[in-house]
Design a protein that fits this description.
Number of helices: 13
Helix content: 25-40%
CATH class of one domain: Alpha Beta
Low-confidence stretches: none
Strand order of the largest sheet: 3-2-1-4
Mean pLDDT: 94
């Protein structure tokens, strides 16, 4: 029987989907998290506690605590575990991306440097220490620009500025975010603010799988809501893309070039790009699959989930097909309308009754403090739809969302 090590941070949405995929494979599962949690009761003999923010130490811990036991694959299920996953796999002698390449995907400045060196289209950039005087920094950039922390995801801390005064305000806001204790643990990445040229255009997300350096596109998502700032809250993802075939081909080629430039060659990737008259531009590329519960929009071959494919690839098992189902599918990540404490969600039955809606999942719980972007990094929940066309999917998602009412105090 195969043994699989899943790296599951306590903040992830994806625990259930990966554990269900592992159960379907009938493999022995070890679970690692950054601290003891509720899974300790379910897996008392198979739960490790690892310092994900120190990959070298995490790798040594795994070698020490699994001595005499064969581990066949290591799968990081979310952004914060990708570097530790690469380090652990390397220590175990397993196939994986180089630690340096995965680390580059977690440091936006380093990623930009590698893309620029390889001539991959990406925003022009500079960076400043968080101790820099914001007004002085504001005089050294061109507008419009986008400020962002180096190591955060889900658009957290990403702010557009069109003027020096907006720049200074955004800079101070990001610096305050980076001062929170959880983010100070990021180390050097918490001491810097990246500033990029704003790239106009439509935004897409590419979900892919690298196999010996060759990229297979699993899905290309359109993001029909404009993402022009001042914050960049992602809401709707719909696949297949409605962009022209030649544009989609250019996106795939650009993503493959970006992966090579960074040094990625194995496993899932998630890329975010902007597309305009000049072609595609790479905004981000991550050595992981799509976040949140968004993977539930995807089905492949004979009904495989995205998690099924990731685990099969990691274990070297056959995959019947990497072709996504023919029907269109989409997800809405329900945005947080304002800060406060969630008291109640109304209209759930009405939203679930909307034609073509597959499910509405509320991930926030009653009494939870809600923090919107750019400080926050969570959603209220997820709405899923499946239909014959992308337009029908988008319309159903918007209709279901309109029926939900969130009582926030």
């Amino acid at each position: 029987m195969y043994t699989l090590l899943l790296l599951i941070p306590t903040t992830t949405y994806r625990t259930e989907d990966f554990l269900e995929a592992a159960k379907r494979l009938d493999v022995d599962v070890l679970i690692a998290s950054e601290r003891a949690n509720v899974m300790a009761g379910e897996f008392p003999d198979s739960l490790l506690t690892l310092p994900f923010n120190d990959p070298a130490v995490a790798a040594r811990e795994v070698l020490s605590r699994t001595r005499g036991r064969t581990i066949d694959a290591v799968v990081p299920v979310d952004e914060v575990t990708t570097v530790a996953g690469a380090a652990i796999a390397a220590a175990l002698g397993l196939r994986a991306n180089p630690v340096a390449a995965v680390s580059a995907t977690r440091n936006k400045r380093r990623m930009r440097e590698l893309l620029a060196r390889a001539g991959v289209a990406a925003p022009a950039f500079t960076s400043f220490a968080v101790t820099e005087d914001p007004e002085r920094a504001a005089r050294r950039v061109r507008y419009p620009c986008v400020l962002k922390p180096l190591g955060l995801s889900a658009s957290r801390g990403v702010i557009r500025a069109d003027t020096p005064s907006e720049f200074a305000a955004a800079f101070r806001r990001i610096a305050a975010i980076l001062e929170t204790p959880e983010l100070r643990e990021l180390g050097p990445g918490a001491d810097e603010v990246l500033v990029e040229a704003f790239i106009p255009g439509v935004e897409v997300a590419l979900e892919g799988l690298l196999q010996e350096g060759t990229l297979t596109t699993l899905a290309l998502f359109d993001k029909p809501d404009p993402l022009d700032g001042p914050f960049f809250e992602e809401t709707i993802y719909v696949t297949p893309s409605r962009l022209p075939g030649e544009t989609q081909a250019a996106i795939r080629d650009c993503t493959a070039r970006a992966a090579r430039a960074i040094g990625l060659h194995d496993g899932p990737i998630h890329a975010e790009l902007r597309v305009n008259a000049e072609g595609p531009w790479v905004l981000e590329i991550a050595a992981r699959s799509i976040g949140g519960l968004c993977s539930r929009t995807l089905r492949f071959g004979t009904g495989l989930s995205l998690e099924d494919i990731i685990l099969r690839h990691a274990l070297g098992l056959p995959i019947a097909s990497l072709t996504r189902e023919a029907r269109a599918a989409g997800v809405m990540m329900i945005p947080i309308p304002r800060a406060g404490v969630l008291d109640e969600v109304q209209g759930l039955d009405e939203a679930r009754a909307v034609p073509l809606i597959e499910d509405v999942t509320i991930s926030a719980h009653k009494g939870q403090e809600l923090v919107p972007l750019p400080e926050g990094a969570r959603y209220l929940g997820f709405i899923f739809s499946r239909a014959e066309t992308p337009a029908e999917v988008e319309a159903a998602l918007r209709s279901a969302h309109a029926r939900l009412r969130f009582l926030i105090r």
